[in-house]
Amino acid sequence: MATVIELPVELFKGPVDPDWCPGCGDFGVLNGVKQAAAKLGIKPENLLVVSGIGCSSNLPGFIHAYGIHSLHGRAVPVATGAHLANTDLKVIITGGDGDGYGIGVGHLLHAMRRNLNVTYLVMDNQIYGLTTGQTSPTTNLGQKTKSTPQGNIENPINPLALALTAGATFVARAFSGETKHLAETIAAAIEHKGFSLVDIFSPCVTYNKVNTYPFFKERVYKLEDENWDTSDFHKSMQKSFEWGDRIPLGVLYKADMPTYEDGENAFKKGALVKQSLKADKDVFQSVIDEMI
Amino acid sequence: MQEVTIGIAGAAGDGLDKSGDTLARSCGRLGLHVYAYNCYQSIIRGGHIWLKVRIGAEKVYSHGDHLNVLIALNQDSIERHAGEVEKGGVVIFNSDKIKCEPTQVREGVKILGLPMSKVTADVVAEHGPLQAIMQNTVAIGAACFIGSIGLEEPTEVLTDTFGHKGQKIVDLNVGLLKAGYEFAKANVEPIHKDWKFSKKRRPFLTGNEAIAIGAYAAGCKFYSAYPMTPASTVLHWMASHAHKTGICVKQCEDELSVINMAIGAGIAGARSMCATAGGGFALMTEAVGMAGIMEVPVVCVEVQRGGPSTGLPTKTEQADLFQVYGASQGEFPRLIVAPKDIADCFHTTVESFNLADKYQLPVLLMSDLLLSEHPETVDPEVFTHDVKIDRGEMVHEWPEGKGKYKRFAFTESGISPRALPGTPNAAYVSATDDHDEESILISDMFTNQALRRKIMEKRNRKVENLLKELPAPVLEGPQDADVTLVCWGSSWGVMKEAAELLTAEGVKTNILNIKYIAPFHAKEVGEILSKAKKKISVEVNFTSQMARFIQMETGIKMDGHVNRYDGEPLEPKWIGDHVKRILAGKPLDLEVTEDEAKEIAYHWLRTHNGEKLRPVKVTRESANGHGEPTWNIEISERATGAAAARMKVGVSTGSTYSYEKLASEAK
Predict the structure, then answer these.
(1) Which of B241, B254, B260 lies closest to A81 in CB terms?
(2) CATH number of A9-289
(3) For labeling, which of B32, B117, B304, B507 is most exposed (least CB within 10 Å)?
(4) Nearest by CB to A279, which of B217, B269, B441?
């Protein structure tokens, strides 16, 4: 393995400063991504950050790297296409709970079962922030929001359990109030070969008055502090439902499995964008001869 | 021109497409020209399938209006098609199982029943028992004699087809082919004897295959799709050839994913394509606008089928023009192109990749079920691996210290040289929010009207040069025509034949076929149409979308419209008859015909009575109290021929007014 040359974090400073609300959890995630990329020595030109639409999906604009700020819910397929076209790029998908677990959840499931070698960081604030405070797929049962003034009557999605059943090979949780742990978890996710999902508690200071920094600070603990066995699928599944007084952070599950890229014949000659565009004369003739 | 049309009719699962393929490839190897159309249903077994193979000494542009030889694989097919065979033609069938009465065919048509067990006895004795499907080969053998195609090429084609199954299977099939050929030789005369075989071997392929091959030639590296008729065969070709072509072929979870992946691949720099039908494209529309604002090259093939909604999944239509033209919110440049035939599918696909790259925009290539699924012989020199590849203005490196790379630089041409992710010092974000030259968002600024105006103008002025680069449409046929027929896309070939037919009948006709829809040659089209004596649009849709589009772009209104929206493709005589009616000042007449009344009866009987009964005789009645003339359809028992029922169907409305059981069936 090549020696990793760490890069300065400042190298990843974006062209504009974030316009998130002061205190937004997403600042912590942005810093976490920068620190992880710097630590892993991923040069800005080789980093592609892909998002959908939402407050957190503005992240690619705030980091010095290539980026795609795509459509609401479509970050995963756009990232998949870009990744398959150039497997030499390191692709990180960023977005919120509405983007990933709501409008885009169909794509997420399939990306996980494909075990694509990409990282997905979901800034989960359990609310729709950019649209000013409606219920989201992870909003608590009973919580009052703009679209559920009498209280939310739908059960929230459990992202970790969802990822486990869908076949993600790296499932973790982090909290933007725990910056060092967050950066380490992101780095581990990027280093993982296969699909990595990190659900990140990223409090919305404006529209979610329930799931606040103090709410999480009182409850979270780190799995690694308890020598958690990340290879046990069934125990991980059980653990993914732990919620209430104690909420686990860290890598819940990790498996070494063949990736989509391992099975795709087209990559045998390297990244698609680096291959010749000219059709092979003999192959071309053979496909015409088939028709005669 | 010397030509012969052979029809093969049966049920799904009868293997008639393979039989048609043997026949067509044989002709293709002899140097003859073939156009085939398979009229089928969205079922895997049963139903009715009708394959027409038209063979010509010169290029044939449609499945035509004629039928010379019918191969009927079941009784139903005799009932439906035996009467269509023209004088001098032959009806071929397995007489062990199927009957054809002299009353069921026109005068001068030969009934050639193949006593299958007798005809195949020697072959079976030598090579072993037959599967039912192999009897088709006997009928093909008979057709090869009647059509004067000979045995050499068909034998060669069967050998190539069955070679992988071993010599035994090859011998068996070739034996059956010869048995059918010899039986026909002993019993009927061939239709043509004087073909001149150039032996120029022409590939026989569909529009979808030509698009897929075109994509390979153009350097497509990423193809994504979700199965949907009639686009699926692009996916099948791509998947089955991926090991050779090296294209990354991705079947996705839905069409949203399909186009978003293709756009993602386009951003990263791979030439990418996707294909779908109208319904799938409806799901893709939001992403088309994303490609527009991000200025991403991507090729999206939209294959039209009968709509709206699920509509007619296996039938053809040209009713998605406005959907494609209006796809996605906002305004952005797009190229919409509708190739006119199979050779054009190849060239247009290659061109689409080049123009998508050069002008950094989505190319929407419009096809339809007819073009995508009908196979045709095409001159082999059309296909070459050595095509022009133009990636447009690219930035391959950006030295440090050169200043900020502007992904969306406000250039005169509107084209901003493109750097791909991975290029050092040129990092940028491709954003769906509107942005400035450096791709910094301006969407939430207070307030930057100038930047918004300038980025809009930059993007949209790309089409000025694009339009100049595209060839303008031209009139085909006599310049001093009495009538100009306006059509688009795949209708070109059949319209050409219809114009020749009309001209031969004394109505001097030319055609104006529209290939490039957006951007549109409004000036050139306006000049042509303003000089036309009469202008009639002919479209496979209900609302004359191209005629409306031309009126919007040029202010010129057609003098009449011919519309076909019954799922079947246009035919030369059908077009000619309707054009003549309109020229005579009459409205478009799409009343229920006698044959169609029979089809309505078939449908009603299948739904209510199963397969026991069939319509036998149809007569038109006028005074009947229904406010319109009706078709009186006499229905009899299939087994005995005894009169069983009578139904009345409105000539104008198609309404089933009554179904009356006769005493015999009531028991």
Answers:
(1) B260
(2) 3.40.50.970
(3) B117
(4) B217
